[in-house]
Amino acid sequence: MSNNKSNFEGKSLLFIALKILCWWPSFISALIATQVTYYFSHSWKDTLLVFMSVFSVTAYGFTINNIIDAEKDKFAPRKTYKLIFSKRAMQVAKIQAILFVCLAIGLGLFLPTQSLIILCATLVLLSVYSFINNKYGLIANVLTSLCVSALVWVYPISGDFSVFEMVILSLFMFLFILSREIYMDDYDFHSDKKYGKRSLPISIGRQQAKLLSLTIVTTTVIVLSFIVFNYSLNIKLLVPIIGAPLISYLGYIKYYVDNSDKNFKLFFNTTSFAYITFFGVFI
């Protein structure tokens, strides 16, 4: 426990803030939304506003989740930085959570109404997620997936993409993230069980949950690829639909066979890198 107590000690406010908000996934989420916005608007002003607002929304999500999870983190030996052991870090987290909400809504007021609605809805979903995550794992996984899939709707559609094509893209994002979140819950199996969380690995068994996750991602590739070809949709949709799972499969399979820390790191890195395929749709 002494090691946990020292993690935030002597660290700068910037270091603490970046650790709490998980800047890298927040940055990637903002970049995806930014590319979508520029593709449809060609407005640098709206593109910059979307980048800052989506970054704020995502950073709020990670921050509020860290705050709510603080007590549970006592049972998570794999987590390095824990708010429960640092009053200073907890204060930073609470302040930045409020700032990110204000920033997201304030910036959203200068964007189209659709953008503001998506931003506010995502803030609500992330808040609900954080409060139910420690009890209802599967519902929390669905909410996380909804938040990510909402990114493609952050700006009004125009040009050569149809609503149906955007539905296919957001559906793929939803299912890919859902399968990933099931695996993420397996990694936290022991701490979740001690805390009384009802995640899918706890409810149906670890191997069964991972098998379900693999089934979801594989079925998604087959069904959505068929839809793209059958309805002659934009072929660029196949970049993430086929590319993201292909990049991730090694991590999925290795962790399914052996749930070691090394294999989880491989799974986490490959699925994180797979997000780059989403940029291929709007080139």
What does this structure look like?
The chain is 73% helix and 0% strand. The protein is mostly helical and 283 residues long. The protein folds into 2 domains: 146 residues, UbiA prenyltransferase (Tetracycline Repressor, domain 2, Orthogonal Bundle), CATH 1.10.357; 124 residues, UbiA prenyltransferase (Four Helix Bundle (Hemerythrin (Met), subunit A)), CATH 1.20.120. The chain is globular, with a radius of gyration of 19 Å.
Please supply descriptive tags for the structure shown above:
283 residues; 0% strand; 2 domains; Four Helix Bundle (Hemerythrin (Met), subunit A)
Strands, count = 0
**Secondary structural class:** mainly alpha
> How much helicity do the residues have?
over 70%
Indicate the proportion of strand residues.
Answer: under 5%
**Which CATH-level-2 architecture of the largest domain?**
Orthogonal Bundle
Main CATH class of the largest domain: Mainly Alpha
The largest sheet is: none
Termini separation comes to 49 Å
* Radius of gyration over all CA atoms, rounded: 19 Å
Number of domains: 2
Low-confidence stretches: none
How would you name the CATH homologous superfamily of the largest domain? UbiA prenyltransferase
The total count of helices amounts to: 13
The secondary-structure element order is: HHHHHHHHHHHHH
Principal-axes geometry comes out as globular
**What's the CATH topology name of the largest domain?**
Tetracycline Repressor, domain 2
